[in-house]
Amino acid sequence: MRDFAGKNALITGGASGIGLAAAKELIRSGANVTIFDLNGEALGSAVKELEAFAGEVNADVRCEGETGDVTDFEALKKVVDSMEEKGNPVDLLLTCAGIAHPTALAELDLDIIKKTVDIDLLGTIYSCRAVLPGMIKRDGRGHIALVSSLAGILGVYGYSAYGAAKFGVRGLGEVLLQELKPYDINVTILFPPDTDTPQFEYENRFKPEATKAIAGTIKPVSAEYVARCLVKGIRKNRFQVIPTFTGKVTNMASKLFAPILRWALVGVVKKAVRK
């Protein structure tokens, strides 16, 4: 999608973090934005923030918010249908809704496991399923951008449910690339590293020592930086977007030196656990 002017974007999890930052980048490029989020209070504040931002950089765009749960397919479909009825069909979907609760699987609450997989994986699948019939019907007027994680490239201690879901998002993107190519609908998968968001702050409250040891002294990047990389990748129709050099190295190492990388990570974990 090389030109965002006049296009309509739907962003799940758009009230904060990468989703909100991506909304601003798209507004700057001339896209109309609808953010979908479960947190109604945060959503209202985010819409006001986006409207103010649009007033500064591009007053012609439209900013809207819809409250809903990505695990509720009917709620997603209702928003998509409403946009189509208003003559603003979804041209671009960004699936930014996601949660994580870092804890070793043996100690992870079953409700948290289910909630993580439901939101991160099933919510992503539902979002795609809701917009694809309309995109296919319009033939060649669509782009799907999925948010995975570096934990969707390489397993990380403490991120069992999250990693499984994000590996699943990666697999979904691989399949959609094949299914949607005949309709000239493009697919992008984002693999962000640790990113300075409210979700990241939440995770830091629960991270096991082994998880902290793996992260080492690497500082999180800003949501704005990740959003710029994502929008740039969408504009260039890139299939994979890995924002940082460390992330690119991790991706390459996971392909070329997987056994060595696993051995090194296990060593770090053993040392942290012994402490």
Compressed to H and E, one letter per element, the order equals EHEHEHEHEHEEHHEHEHH
Which percent range describes the beta-strand content?
5-15%
CATH class term: Alpha Beta
**Helical percent range?**
40-55%
Task: Give me the CATH architecture, please.
Answer: 3-Layer(aba) Sandwich
Question: What gross morphology would you assign?
Answer: globular
Which consecutive residue ranges, at least 5 long each, have pLDDT under 50? none
How many beta-strand runs? 9
The CATH homologous superfamily is called: NAD(P)-binding Rossmann-like Domain
Q: Strand sequence of the main sheet, in spatial order? A: 3-2-1-4-5-6-9
Q: What number is the mean pLDDT? A: 93
How many structurally independent domains?
1
* Main sheet attributes: strand count, strand direction, barrel closure: 7 strands, parallel
Q: Work out the radius of gyration.
A: 18 Å
CATH topology: Rossmann fold
Number of helices: 10
Describe this structure in words.
It is a single chain. The strands form 2 sheets. This protein has a 7-stranded parallel beta sheet, sandwiched between helices. The chain has a two-stranded parallel sheet with strand order 7-8. Helix 5 (160-180) links the parallel strand 5 (143-147) and strand 6. The protein has 10 helices and 9 strands. The protein has a single domain, classed as NAD(P)-binding Rossmann-like Domain (Rossmann fold, 3-Layer(aba) Sandwich), CATH 3.40.50. The chain has 275 residues and is α/β, with parallel strands linked by helices.
